[in-house]
Amino acid sequence: MSFWAGNVGFFGFGRELKVFNSQGELSPDGVRSASEQWWEYWKRYWQQKDGPTPMPKDYACEVTIPLK
Fold first, then answer.
1. pTM value surpassing 0.85
2. How far is CA 36 from the centre of its chain?
3. How far apart are CA 64 and CA 25, in angstroms?
4. Distance of alpha carbon 6 from alpha carbon 51, whole angstroms
5. Which of 7, 31, 34, 64 has the fewest CB atoms within 10 Å around its CB?
6. DSSP symbols for 1-68
7. How far apart are CA 42 and CA 65, in angstroms?
8. Domain locations in the chain as residue ranges
């Protein structure tokens, strides 16, 4: 696996890749489910943002711009 982020890059290799969140390891289906849940939350955040019951400010939502 490798990537560049501006002037910083990363290259790593190994026999397997595991994904973890604060609750522990995620399966491939768990990653997909977490992603879907995130986008549902993001949509709800923006739907409620200027309404009578806005959600608490979430900087991750504020800076995330979906691309199609």
1. no
2. 9
3. 24
4. 37
5. 7
6. -EEEETTEEEE---S---EEETTEEE-HHHHHHHHHHHHHHHHHHHHHTTSSSPPPP-HHHHH-----
7. 10
8. 17-63
The 10s digit of each residue's pLDDT in 9-68 is 999 999 998 999 999 999 999 999 999 999 999 999 999 999 999 999 999 999 999 887
Cα–Cα distance, 5 to 39 (Å, whole number)? 23
CA dihedral 41, 43, 45, 46 (to 10 degrees): 170
What token pair was written down for 37? 């849940």
Amino acid at 15: R
Q: Which two tokens stand for residue 33?
A: 């489910």
**Token pair recorded at residue 56:** 């608490």
